[in-house]
Amino acid sequence: MSTDTNKQIEYYANALKAPRIRDSAARLAEQARDAGWTHEEYLAAVLSREVSSRESSGAETRIRAAGFPARKAIEEFNFDHQPALKRDTLAHLGTAQFISKAQNVVLLGPPGTGKTHLSIGLGIAAAHHGHRVLFATAVEWVTRLQTAHQHGRLAAELAKLRRYGLLIVDEVGYIPFEQDAANLFFQLVSSRYEHASLVLTSNLPFSRWGDVFSDHVVAAAMIDRIVHHADVLTLKGNSYRLRNTEIDTLPSMRGDNQAD
Length: 260
Ligand SMILES: Nc1ncnc2c1ncn2[C@@H]1O[C@H](COP(=O)(O)OP(=O)(O)O)[C@@H](O)[C@H]1O
Ligand SMILES: [Mg+2]
What we know:
Elements: H1 3-15, H2 19-35, H3 39-65, H4 87-93, H5 97-100, E1 104-108, H6 115-128, E2 133-137, H7 138-150, H8 154-162, E3 166-172, H9 179-192, E4 197-202, H10 209-212, H11 216-228, E5 230-234
Parallel strand pairs: 1-4, 1-5, 2-3, 3-4
The chain binds adenosine-5'-diphosphate and magnesium ion (MG).
């Protein structure tokens, strides 16, 4: 290729904000000449470099914007520690099809059984499939909605959040909500119902959610909407955090306080 042509490619690639085309055009041209590619094959190879790196940098941007407390992948999850949980189920959820269908996932189980880990893993998989994701604890979501409500823009906030394909609500049930907070949380759940997905985690079974939301009617209406289109996965056993210690029970794992 002449230097003039190279300069033109560089100019056009910059104008298109496609730096990978600029970087790969000359290198791929050499490869194309050596391997006798057609013009079309060469063009496809150059464009594919740009597209695949845009897709992965888009995913990276979405992952950074999601506010995950840590990076955890479904692939890093040790299924031997959760024999009741099917690898296939998680692999299927990892395709993010549930988000295209505005379905939900609920992860229930005692502390340390991997609820947060899997919720993050699902969020990262969603980001790789092009979905916008936000992660926060139930308490943080309610605080966010309270702030919006106080400024008279609750509806606008809920509409904005509906543009995220997936919201992750971690730790439902660790801290009980007052009536007002419970109502705001209910509005979040209703606003997403059949429009966009939620992944929720809780240490409590649904039967105990009435206590968390200080209102059994609101809790029942909420659970109804959440589970209408949902996969409910129950994690069991001892905390993974304590697996190499002598400790085999935590206070919260006693009796009816357990989500099993
Ligand atoms: N089955 C598992 N395989 C690999 N790591 C796990 C597993 N279960 C839990 N962990 C790890 O143990 C720690 C606690 O898990 P976490 O998801 O925070 O539990 P939970 O949210 O249920 O309390 C995290 O570092 C997580 O990555
Ligand atoms: Mg957790």
